[in-house]
């Protein structure tokens, strides 16, 4: 990846932007044990305001393309403005016509949901491709949305206004075109059960050759657990042509979104690309480089990033970025969707996998908890403390796109309404605005999900969060309560006087006038115990100015004494309903009162007092982290209380010193990625502190070793009762294609015996057949996994018939629920859909339905929190019932989670 964090580059960009000179920085000491002092990285996009829009649901600029040229039948064209799962009519011309509206929010970047040509309707899903995630042609715009020329016109006009256009792209899958000879949408088959085979029938592990020229030739008749087939007439449906080769897909059945199948399984039948195959890697790079070169696209949001193997990103990201730079796109930016709320995991994609940024799902969770649920303010402080996970040589948390809701999970307005039942309109609106204030004033690039500026709510995610801004005909949308307005979805909602539209525009205006509120160093200052004030500073490192931001998530006014770097200085209000001016005490503490459910921002007068000398700095002993054994926690102790930046470097024994990140807020630390190193590899670390006057001080060198891997046995379940066979599963940290995990068994406390080994990453499994051991009931078996010198936890099971803990309720939600007397379809809590538990431990339900083809699932305890689909997979694909009409009996076994219909 092209380095973007050198001091020279950062300073040069600042000078060019401001036309002013910076204070000269003292040269770092020449000692061999002193690291190079650097400024904390600010990528080119730390000042973007994103507007995330689904073209089909925004504005209908031309009715001529509503049906995509496929005719009036919705089952063919996918166009039906009365149904939330079908095309509703929006298009790129509509976006072009409404650029004034978008720009009025302070938008600097428009992010479009996928706009390539989709399979208009997938009958198995009873839905259309309005959302853009069922692509068949990666080279042209979906005809429902317009043409390639319409896109070019939109991009050109946006560029003329100083706005960028980002594409939402997919590398993980295509539309559901490939079927299997064995049946449609089959359950997942693991690599250990059925390994991949070469065209000659020899088994191999794809991770061993991922992305390399050693990847073997494949044959669809022998290489996969299922035999891929194409319907007549669809053999050449996909574009580019290489996408029609069934050897370039995983062909393992549907994912359950967990473990190995999260990488290899089909998403509800969508054809899962073999991203380990070099043809796929090169093909995807070619596709998206063409859109950069020919249309001037400014960046990509990348769908389903965590479901693609690491090796793909390690090549795709740097190569595409370099290509964009070669096209003159110096600010080209890519960020991925990693749907997870743990920073140790989400950050791996920007550190280990060489990508620029990821969508900040952890922020969304923290912001909702603070603003909507009035969670303990200290939790927000802990959240920002974890930003160091993202710090490395070429990226950090300042470039992460932050958001409050989206098209998959739901809207912030809906969350606020759900979290505060019975609350008045004023409170709901205030909480919504508070969430946006937190998003705009804290680090990161704020993303507005279209319609949130009009108070859209909705009861949930997916189709329930995809309302149109133009007048809707969808019954499910027409009964939504919008925040801050008496309007409904029955009319256009482009109201520039809506309070949320005006608030968001004002926030963009304030941060545009005071850019330190967007890219200044984020310093934790204060957190109340319980609901109350959370406060932080943003530091303009060029002008040495401090801003104090205080947010109050309680329903009463709160006062707090907030530490600053500025003793005896005046702070002037630039946002919010607080006092016009406050003055800090001699110790720098400023007393601030914040009204309920609101925010205030103050700017200090003058510069932060200059440091007279660099403080002393030393390194703690580096050690593997608990959250990620492939990373070393390297932390510096800095003896001082002013504004500092600490740069870290590392090297292996005898190697060159390499920058591994610069941290601009205490505690000063990085999480150095050493996953690629062999256990026991010698490491050396050093750091240098840079004060606000340009003085530097070095830490000296400390030594460490790359850690041994950690292996964890995840199955069998502890204290389970087993009969005949025991399913074993283990994972390794860090995960490597070269790992070989052995499984060991102990019988009734006896000696450990190796029973099998597995080298098939990323999951290590084995089925221990105990049927021939002639073990009496109540015999205890213990299992563990071994990797090199690392030994896992132990799981204990007992021989005997399994005890099934039955749920309180089991239902059959599906497309036939309304036929059964339910008020609608897909209702897990409908009384008529509930099953009855029999003496044999099986659940049954017999109902009369009209003949037809229906989809259904199994839901536990009257909610979607636990549900099962095809193959008994948790959260698996819908099952399909073709019935002639009359009585049908559903039978469900909670031991296997399988359901049948007869």
From TrEMBL:
The keyword Hydrolase belongs to this UniProt entry's keyword annotation: yes
Coiled coil: none
Gene3D superfamilies assigned to the protein according to its UniProt record, in alphabetical order: Glycosidases, Golgi alpha-mannosidase II, Immunoglobulins
Keywords of this entry: Glycosidase, Hydrolase, Signal
GO molecular function: cation binding; hydrolase activity, acting on glycosyl bonds
Record SUPFAM superfamilies: (Trans)glycosidases, Glycosyl hydrolase domain
One Pfam family from the record: X25_BaPul_like
CDD domains the UniProt entry points to: AmyAc_bac_CMD_like_2, X25_BaPul_like
This protein's name: Glycosidase
Organism annotation: Arthrobacter subterraneus
